Amino acid sequence: MRFNIKLKVISKVSNYNKNSAQVIIIKTNEEFDTLIKSESFDLSELQINNFKKEGDCELFIWRNSNPVLTVLKKTEIGKKFNNDYFRNYLAGLIQKIEKDNFSSLYINIPKHKEYSEFFDNEGYFYQTFCEGILLGNYNFDHYKKDKKKPQNLNVFFIVNNNKLFQKSLIKAEKIISGVFFTRDLVNEPANSLTPAEFAKRVKSEFRNSKVSIKIFDEKELHKRKMNAILSVGKASDNKPKLIVAHYKPRSKSNYKIALVGKGVTYDTGGLSIKPTKGMLEMKADMAGGGTVFGILKAAEKLEIPFEIYGIVPAVENAISGNAYKPGDIISTSTGKTIEVKDTDAEGRIILADALEFASQLKPDEIIDFATLTGAVAVALGLFTSGLFTKNDKISEQLIKASEQTYEHIWQLPFWDEYNKLLESKIADISNLGPRWGGAITAGKFLEFFVDEKIPWAHIDLAGPALEHELTNYSKDYCTGYGVRLICKYLEDLIK
Q1: What's the topology of domain 193-494?
Q2: Using one digit for the tens of pLDDT, what is the confidence trace for 10-43?
Q3: What is residue 10's three-state secondary structure?
Q4: In 15-148, where does DSSP find H-type helix?
Q5: Are 362 and 374 in contact (CB under 8 A)?
Q6: Is 274 among the catalytic positions?
Q7: Looking at the domain covering 3-174, what would its CATH class be?
Q8: Where are the domains positioned within the chain?
Q9: 389-406 as b/e: b if 16+ CB within 10 A
Q10: Which is the catalytic residue, given 167, 248, 256, 274?
Q11: pLDDT tens digits for 166-222?
Q12: Residue 442 and residue 418 in contact, taking contact as beta carbons nearer than 8 Å
C-alpha cells in the first residue's frame, strides 16, 4: 500500500495535527469567495480568476501553518459529473500526495442534498468517498528491492452525519478488502501463482472464516471424470486443481448462488501458441477466479444472508509433448464431448466441467466470470465487461448495480441462432466458432454446459479486469473488477 491508512470520522476539527493537509470541496464561486475571505488565503488575482472559470478546478495552497496544504476542489454538475466522481477524485489525490510526508489528511465532506440527483442514497454517497481513498491507496510492489516502508496517514472525514458515515465507512472497508484480495491474486506473476499456490492462498485466506475450502487434485478430477480441466492442464508440470469454496451464512438461507470463475494462472495458448506480446498479460488470465474469491471474502465480511459457492478450475495452459491438440475430442464430467479447434480457447473448456459441477449443486442462479475473449474488448473497449444471459431479472439487476458502482457492463445479443456456429460433425460442440461474434459464441459454448432450468449469466471481463485508463484507481494495476459490482448486486437481492 502507498500508506498505512487509518480512516476516522469527525464532526469538526479542534486542532489540526502537525504536517497535515485538508481538502475542501466547493460547488459555487460564491462559496469560494466566502472561504478565501474567512481563511485569509494569500491568492493572486490570476489564481482566483482561473479557479472561477467554468469547469472543474483544483487549487493547491501551501502555508507555513497547519494545515500545511489546503486543496480546494470545485465540482461542476454537468456532462462529466457522475456517481464515481468523488471516488475517482480521492483515489487520484491520495496518489498525488504520496511523497509529501503528511501525517494527516482532513476531508470536508459536502452535503448529500447538493448531489442527490446523482446519489439517491446518502449512505452510498458517503461510501464512494471511503472507497476512493482506499482504492487509490493500492499498489503492488512486492517484488521491488528498494521499496519504501509505507508511512502512516490518518484520514479524517469531517461530516455532520457521523453515524451514517461511520456505517458507510465500515461497509466500504469490508468490500474493498475483497477487491484487494482479488487484485493481489491477479497481479501476482505466474511463476509464483501456480494452480497449487492459487489454491493454497485461497485456503489460507479463508482459514477461521465462514467459508470452507475444498481442493480437488488430479486424482479427484479423474474420479469425477473432469477431463476438460485435466486436458487443458496436463502439459504443465504444475498440475490442475479445482478450488471449491462454500460460504454459509449464520442463519439458514433459502437462496443459493454459485459463482464460477476461470482460473488459468498462465496461458501460452497451448499448441495454438500466442505471440510473445499476447502472453505478457496472461498472468491475469485467472482474473475471473480471483474475482470469485474477492466476492466471497467481501460477502463473508458483509454477512450476506445467502449460501454462496465459489468454483474455480485452476490450470496452466502450457506446451509439452503431452499437450492437448487441435482436433482432439474431450469429454466433460457429464459425458458431453468437445471438438478442440483451438487450444487457445482453453478457458471455456475448463469452465465446461466447472459449470456442470455448479449445476449439480442445484443453485437458484449461476454467474460466471472469465477473461474469456479478446473479442469482447474489441466490441466494448477496455473498461466495459460483456454480459450474456437470457434471464431478464439477472441482467436488469446487474446493470442497475453497474450504474451504482461504475463498474461498466453491457448486455450483448444471445440468440440461439448463434448456436449453429459451434456445431461439430464429430462431437457435441466445437470450442471455437468463426471470427465474427466471438464473444457471443464463447458465451454460447458455456451455455451448453449449464442446466437450462437454472438462471445463469456469463460476464466476460477480459477488458476491465486489466489495468486501463478510465479511472485513477484502475490505471496502474489489474483492477479487481466485479467485486464491488456483485456486492451491490447481492445487496439489492436482499431487499
Answers
A1: Aminopeptidase (3.40.630)
A2: 999 999 999 999 999 999 999 999 998 888 888 9
A3: strand
A4: 29-39, 45-51, 85-96, 122-136
A5: no
A6: yes
A7: alpha beta
A8: 3-174, 193-494
A9: beeeebbebbeebbebbb
A10: 274
A11: 999 999 999 999 999 999 999 999 999 999 999 999 999 999 999 999 999 999 999
A12: no
